[in-house]
């Protein structure tokens, strides 16, 4: 059994070698000769998986260690009889923590309280749903837009996108990229939508670049629209518009989902799916794979206010550590992917054990996803 894995999948060699011979390859571009004798292919979002790549090859299963699947022609895989699995939700916590890190940075810089802001969430799935819960745990008002869920009759107060545009101070996108169909998201944020955002609003895109029309956004920013912008994803990648990068408040190289936990969950989810596909069911516990974090334990004295939360969040992950390197290399061939390949280890908030002498601080931090306990220390 020969299994090709993207070289940017942590723990892939260790896990997949339990099932067969593993070869790690670059995902962009994927060396096509490697497919000639491969039984299975494990990719990330940078590899386009379609007939052009796989027709006539022996590959019987494709796994993508990602939440998004717009790089995979699932219809063709199904009609070609090739098994497929994605990794839904694997990195949702990472994206939520990226959004929080960015919002706390902007709130400190511009001197506002997050509890005075209303956050509009477009796409309330694994990322958007977790984001809603964590924002509400802090007492921040959210407005939700998810037409597919609304049409299915899911519980939730789902609103039209237009209402979010009118009322939200922060508009954050967490939808898949659908190029057409009833729930098309390509250029969901177009020039008309962007120009109607509230003055001083914050626009965040951490889903897929083309969900926001990047040329329209640049035109609005150049026209002096009062808007703060956080872009993790770009139209197109890896060759983003470098002028747009100079205009955004935070710009990163599609790394919102890149916690070690998030990437490792992606690998384990496709490993489990493939092991089931070949009839050798394995289940993996993440705890057995992950190393100890750089900061493991901290004591918080007193209550939790926004400034304290910001310091705690930024101890684990400060989004500015990913903004500066992108600005340094943008426009140079190959550098966007190099930043992603050589990504400095980043952990999730749950990796930090926080001992609090204030019961409410412990309760809030627990709801936010920290490993917090209340323990009187004074
Ligand atoms: N920047 C990054 O590193 C990452 C980006 N992503 C992207 O974010 C997307 C969302 O991730 P998840 O929450 O895990 O996916 P998900 O599939 O759990 O949730 C997506 C939600 O969007 C909703 N939706 C679909 N069409 C919509 C529309 N037209 N308007 C509003 N809502 C719509 C769906 O009903 C669903 O509830 C992924 O598809 C992926 O493209 C995901 C993880 C990491
Ligand atoms: O899971 C997704 O969807 C993502 O966007 C991933 O975080 C992207 O990471 P790569 O697969 O491009 O390494």
TrEMBL record:
Residues 110-255 form the D-isomer specific 2-hydroxyacid dehydrogenase NAD-binding domain. One of its GO terms (cellular component) is cytosol. The keyword Ribonucleoprotein does not apply. Its main location: cytoplasm. PROSITE patterns: D_2_HYDROXYACID_DH_1, D_2_HYDROXYACID_DH_3. One of its GO terms (molecular function) is NAD binding. Keywords: Cytoplasm, NAD, Oxidoreductase, Pyridoxine biosynthesis. Substrate binds at residues 45, 66, 258. NAD(+) binds at residues 146, 175, 232, 257. Residues 4-280 form the D-isomer specific 2-hydroxyacid dehydrogenase catalytic domain. Pfam families: 2-Hacid_dh, 2-Hacid_dh_C, DUF3410. The active site is at 208, 237, 254 (proton donor). Residues 289-369 form the Erythronate-4-phosphate dehydrogenase dimerisation domain. Homodimer. This is Erythronate-4-phosphate dehydrogenase. It comes from Trabulsiella guamensis ATCC 49490. The gene is pdxB.
């Amino acid at each position: 059994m020969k299994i090709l894995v993207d070289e940017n999948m942590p723990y892939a060699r260790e896990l997949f070698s339990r099932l067969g011979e593993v070869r790690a390859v670059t995902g962009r571009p994927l060396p096509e000769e490697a497919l000639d004798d491969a039984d299975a292919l494990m990719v990330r979002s940078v590899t386009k998986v379609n007939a052009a790549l796989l027709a006539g090859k022996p590959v019987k299963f494709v796994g993508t260690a990602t939440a998004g699947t717009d790089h995979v022609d699932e219809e063709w895989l199904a009609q070609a009889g090739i098994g497929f699995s994605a990794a839904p939700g694997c990195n949702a916590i990472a994206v939520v923590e990226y959004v929080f890190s960015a919002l706390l940075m902007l709130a400190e810089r511009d001197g506002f309280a997050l509890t005075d802001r209303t956050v509009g969430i477009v796409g309330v799935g694994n990322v958007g749903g977790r984001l809603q819960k964590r924002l509400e745990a802090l007492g921040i008002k959210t407005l939700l837009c998810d037409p597919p869920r609304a049409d299915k009759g899911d519980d939730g107060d789902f609103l039209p996108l237009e209402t979010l545009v009118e009322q939200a101070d922060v508009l954050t996108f967490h939808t898949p990229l659908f190029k057409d169909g009833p729930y098309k998201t390509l250029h969901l944020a177009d020039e008309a939508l962007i120009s109607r955002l509230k003055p001083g609003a914050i626009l965040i895109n951490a889903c897929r670049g083309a969900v926001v029309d990047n040329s329209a956004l640049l035109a609005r920013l150049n026209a002096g629209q009062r808007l703060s912008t956080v872009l993790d994803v770009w139209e197109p990648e890896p060759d983003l518009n470098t002028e747009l990068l100079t205009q955004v408040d935070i710009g990163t190289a599609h790394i919102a989902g890149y916690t070690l936990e998030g990437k490792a969950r992606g690998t384990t989810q496709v490993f489990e799916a493939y092991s089931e596909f070949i009839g050798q069911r394995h289940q993996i516990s993440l705890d057995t794979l992950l190393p100890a974090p750089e900061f493991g334990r901290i004591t918080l004295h007193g209550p939790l206010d926004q400034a304290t939360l910001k310091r705690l969040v930024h101890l684990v992950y400060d989004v500015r550590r990913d903004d500066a390197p992108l600005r340094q290399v943008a426009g140079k061939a190959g550098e966007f992917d190099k930043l992603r390949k050589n990504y400095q280890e980043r952990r999730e908030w749950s990796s930090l054990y926080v001992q609090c002498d204030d019961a409410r601080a412990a309760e809030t931090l627990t709801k936010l996803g920290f490993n917090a306990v209340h323990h009187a220390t004074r």
